[in-house]
Amino acid sequence: MLQWDTSNNYSNGTSEEIIGKAIKKYNLPRHKLILLTKCLAPVSEHENVFVVPYAEEMRKDKKYVNQFGYIGASSMRTYQFAMMQICAEKHGWAEFISMQNQYSLNYREEEREMNRFCNETVVGLIPWGPLDSGRLARSIQDVATTDGLGDTSPDAIPTADAAIIHRVEDSAMNKGWFHESGRFGMD
């Protein structure tokens, strides 16, 4: 199985075009592909589920279950996710089958509650940002000069993150995965 998570608002739809070209070029059989996308609104315009009543939010999702077969959730507090699951169960509506949450070596907050809750309730976990916007895929010097997330000086990278990035870099070098370009990965 091959899984791609995309959206028409990632790179203004270019990501979906690239995936389409790859499927065609490599003649990938559709029955071996899992394609994930967003269908409510552009990422920047998602409704704030913190203020929308759970029943209203879950009732809206019914039409997407009928159209696509399943629904998943993304990036919310564990208690909110639990309340939405309880609401769906109470009304006989489809429950979320997946939680897409931020998760990387530099961001492990979800281990406290969300990952455990999902494991206990048999909800699939789909991490987003596993390379921490590329910070875990290149040397600390390269991160400091190319990070598009704000201040790019080496001092702007949190100490704990820098320590983890250094450990990943050391591991990559020990395994022979460090490229002269400053990027990690196998050839």
Which sequence of SSEs, written as H and E, runs from N to C?
A: EHEHEHEHEHH
Shape, please? globular
Low-confidence stretches: none
What's the number of structural domains? Answer: 3
Protein name: Versiconal hemiacetal acetate reductase
Family: Belongs to the aldo/keto reductase family. Aldo/keto reductase 2 subfamily.
Pfam family, one: Aldo_ket_red
Domain NADP-dependent oxidoreductase: 4-45, 53-140
Task: For the structure shown, list the relevant keywords.
187 residues; alpha/beta; three-stranded parallel β-sheet; 5 strands; 11% strand
What does it look like?
This protein is α/β, with parallel strands linked by helices and about 190 residues long. It has three domains: about 45 residues, no CATH class; about 80 residues, no CATH class; about 40 residues, no CATH class. It has six helices and five strands; from the N terminus they run E-H-E-H-E-H-E-H-E-H-H. The strands form two sheets. It has a three-stranded parallel sheet with strand order 3-4-5, with helices on one face. Helix 2 packs across helix 3. The model has no long low-confidence stretch (mean pLDDT about 80). GO terms for molecular function: oxidoreductase activity. Keywords: NADP, Oxidoreductase. It comes from Penicillium argentinense. This is Versiconal hemiacetal acetate reductase.
